[in-house]
Model the fold of this input.
Amino acid sequence: MIEKTIGAAVPATGRRLFPSPDFPTVPVAGEDRVYPVHRIFCVGRNYAEHAREMGVEVDREAPFYFTKSALALVASGSRIPYPPGTRDFHYEMELVAAIGRQLFRADPETAESALFGYACGLDMTRRDLQLAARAKGRPWDLGKDFERSAVVAPITRAAALGALGERRISLSVNGAVRQSARLADLVWSVPELVSHLSQFYHLGPGDLIFTGTPAGVGPVVPGDVLRGEIDGLVPVELAIGDPE
Ligand code: MN
Done:
């Protein structure tokens, strides 16, 4: 008999066959508590110039998304191995929004008030696999959702940051600037994205949203050091190691 129709989940108790990991976490800037990550949503083509460099035009019809497993998370400051299966491993510097409370079918104003904070993030991408999938109309998972593909710097609380406004977002590889734009260039603003996502999901604390990358994406090779910055946020850093 079905007893619960809302919120019914697999029981968390029971003797486990193997250890299950805790949710990964992201530090909160200036605090000793950490933000546990449950889900990672990513927005595609949210800067017009980047869409163009990918050979497509953006539309204002609706944003689109892909996801990464929370287990794809890797701490800023890590050195990661060059991943398997690709010859075109790319960086994408992004603003990451962290949800702070439950949100369902919210308007943009309510969505904005439910934000916990923001962070610098890297949506690391196996571009050759993503484009091959795209060309065949297949899902992007092999290109996007893989181990250590989501890099997130410490989160700054929204209340401590103030309005996003015209802040600069940039990324350098070995000290040379490769991406530089303004958050005002986002096709869909953060409140619009969160509001839109909340029409499809019960969002809540632990949900991160990668908000898309500006133009200038490109490949990395072993030995490269990436540094991404957004005015007022903790920079994100990543070093690329040799293949496993
Ligand atoms: Mn991206």
